[in-house]
Specification:
With 135 residues, this protein is mainly beta. It has one domain: Immunoglobulin-like, CATH 2.60.40.10. It is built from one helix and nine strands; from the N terminus they run E-E-E-H-E-E-E-E-E-E. Strands 2, 4, 5, 7, 8 and 9 form a six-stranded mixed beta sheet that branches. The radius of gyration is 16 Å and the shape is elongated.
């Protein structure tokens, strides 16, 4: 990682309030999608702007997008350290009735950039496939 770089490292689903990836979630409960990223020290020091956005797709139901969320802020604020995790809470209703469906989470990071001479840094990550089951 260079001092002026920023990138997403990984995205994964987990039970709410835990830190361990879980690819078999139970319906009826909220869960989290965690996004981990890293920013170089020089870029972090600028306090520049960024946006991290996620979406969850249901591949079984013809790739429909079933949930989206984002955080937009500045380095040093919501992105408080050079290595940062963003937990996104996903409501239980999102996966209701989707037992045994194959799901995937995707995240995109866009940082800085103003105009064609200074394009933003962009990074994408995809989760492992995951599913949900009845409790």
């Amino acid at each position: 990682m260079g001092p002026n770089d920023v990138e997403l490292d990984r995205i994964y689903p987990r039970e709410a309030g835990t830190v361990v990836e879980d690819i078999t979630l139970e319906t009826g409960s909220n869960f989290e999608v965690a996004v981990e990223g890293e920013v170089g020290t020089a870029l972090f020091g600028t306090g520049g702007n960024f946006t991290v956005a996620i979406l969850i797709r249901d591949l079984t139901a013809n790739s429909s997008v079933i949930h989206t969320a984002n955080v937009a802020s500045n380095f040093g604020a919501a992105w408080a350290t050079v290595k940062q995790e963003f937990p996104f809470t996903v409501p239980a209703a999102t996966i209701a009735g989707r037992e045994n469906h194959i799901l995937e989470a995707v995240a995109v990071l866009s940082a800085g950039g103003v105009g064609p001479a200074n394009p933003p840094d962009v990074s994408f990550v995809r989760s492992r496939l995951f599913t949900v089951h009845a409790p």
